[in-house]
Amino acid sequence: PEQFWELFDEHVTLVGYAVLIAILIAVPLAIITSRISPLEKPMTWIANIGQAIPSLAVLALALPIMGIGFRPSLLALTVLAVLPIFLNTFVGIMSADPAVVDAARGMGASDFQLLRMVQLPLAMPFMFAGLQTAVVQSIGLATLAAYIGGGGFGNWILQGLAVNSFPLLLAGAVPVAVMAMFAEILLGLARRAVVPKGLTVA
Fold this sequence. Notes:
Blueprint: H1 2-35, H2 37-52, H3 55-66, H4 70-94, H5 98-106, H6 111-141, H7 154-162, H8 166-194
Helix pairs in contact: 1-2, 1-4, 1-6, 2-4, 3-4, 4-6, 5-6, 6-8, 7-8
């Protein structure tokens, strides 16, 4: 039990920090990209290509930069979490009804007021969808961090594979699956509480 909670703490800490840092990077980046037209195509292209890169490859690229342990694992997970949050936030901002945007401009709203009072509220369903994707994805991908000494339940999964122990393998895999399901449910409830029903994305 002691080792279980130690691994749980490592897993949650890794995922929590990665998603938090990703939000702080992705949301401002999406806002800047939505304001500077020449950035739209290259940034969305990079983000789409980035999502196609295997997770293990991202972890491998982090090794020469930061070695092994928590920090390279955090770097890799942050990079992977930035992509869905950035894309969904950008799409949400750009999907604002042009008639609503024109009406706000006609009432004298500045660009900052337009963003804060119109575009970001309308983008909330997309942003929550990106956050859900990033969190659930990070919980699963954090198991791979064990390959580079990042800790978490991936340690038990690797040990189970190494010694051909199915119980040990399940001891690592089941908590990760349960955590991912609970995260999906809790974020779904949070989205329903925060996002007005009229703006909910199916």
